[in-house]
Design goal:
It comes from Nonomuraea typhae. The protein has helices at residues 23-28, 57-75, 93-96, 140-143, 184-206, 224-234; strands at residues 34-40, 79-86, 101-106, 108-109, 112-113, 126-132, 144-148, 160-166, 169-174, 211-216, 238-241, 246-250, 254-260, 270-275. The chain has 276 residues and is an alpha+beta fold. It has a single domain (32-275), classed as Endonuclease/exonuclease/phosphatase (Deoxyribonuclease I, Chain A, 4-Layer Sandwich), CATH 3.60.10.10.
Length: 276
């Protein structure tokens, strides 16, 4: 039986595990239940939480990915969205979790891809990713979407979004700008605008099909001003959070959610949702 970790208040856990889509579901363009798992892995030396990981810097990224693999195999999602990872982290990952599809979305520093580094000392390019049990259909340009967001706090870390269009719906991820106390109002305005752009572009790319957006949106629903921006972003959609800044926003119906403490390998819980 699946160990659900911590359940969010008032939400029932759906016990049956989610499997691969049936042929009928593919023909209809949607599966009855899709389980999505969202994780921010804090896996670059640039991330402030990097210093809190135990052990020497040379092994922190590898051990974080090993813990993520354990969680993915335990939860058995159909789709995984990942933030704060490096492109090298994906090497062999989909094979270890027995997935067939992956897309990586690059964050930019100025006009160039943001290279992982800091105390990590490498790892490829910094960004986000989506992993799916099924491979992406071809041509990839039709079923994959990537966009540097229009509104940015600065050019030091230009945030992006990315999507994969699957038979059961379009899944997207984004990691929007963090809201810090310094220059709080501007940061809040930027992050709110980014969230709205993510939803607008997800809808445009998906067309009339189902949408699932999962990511670290850096909007805390327990803070009234951030809640207002989140409400603007999610208007017309169903949404749930991990109790913090990670969210799943969808046109589907929530049938259960849960989260798991991933410390000391990241300062964010894993957050999963069953969607019907």
């Amino acid at each position: 039986m699946l160990n659900p970790g911590r359940l969010l208040p008032g939400l029932a856990l759906l016990l049956p595990l989610v499997g691969a889509p049936s042929a009928a579901a593919e023909e209809n363009g949607a599966e009855s239940t899709v389980r999505v798992l969202q994780m921010n892995l804090c896996n670059s030396g640039f991330a402030g939480c990097w210093a809190g990981k135990p052990g020497d810097d040379a092994r922190k990224a590898e051990r974080t990915i090993a813990r993520a693999v354990e969680e993915i195999l335990r939860v058995k999602p159909q789709v995984v969205t990942l933030n704060e990872i490096c492109s090298d982290d994906l090497k062999g990952l989909k094979e270890r979790i027995r997935f067939q599809g992956d897309s990586f979305f690059k964050v930019y520093k100025g006009d160039d891809p943001y290279r992982c580094g800091g105390k990590r000392g490498g790892g490829g390019i910094y960004g986000s990713a989506i992993l799916t049990r099924e491979p992406l259909r071809k041509p990839y340009s039709t079923y994959r979407f990537e966009r540097v967001l229009t509104v940015q706090y600065d050019r030091k870390e230009r945030r992006v979004m990315g999507c994969r269009k699957m038979p059961w719906g379009t899944v997207c991820t984004a990691h929007t700008n963090q809201i810090k106390d310094d220059d709080y109002r501007k940061r809040l305005t930027v992050t709110g605008a980014q969230c709205r752009e993510v939803m607008r572009e997800a809808r445009r790319f998906a067309g009339t099909g189902p949408i699932i957006v999962a990511g670290d949106l850096n909007l805390d629903g327990d803070k009234s001003d951030q809640r207002a921006k989140l409400d603007e972003c999610t208007a017309g959609y169903a949404s749930r959070s991990d109790g913090g800044v990670q969210h799943v926003i969808t046109t589907k119906r929530f049938a259960g959610t849960g989260s798991t403490d991933m410390s000391p390998w990241t300062d964010h819980d894993s957050f999963w949702a069953n969607l019907q």
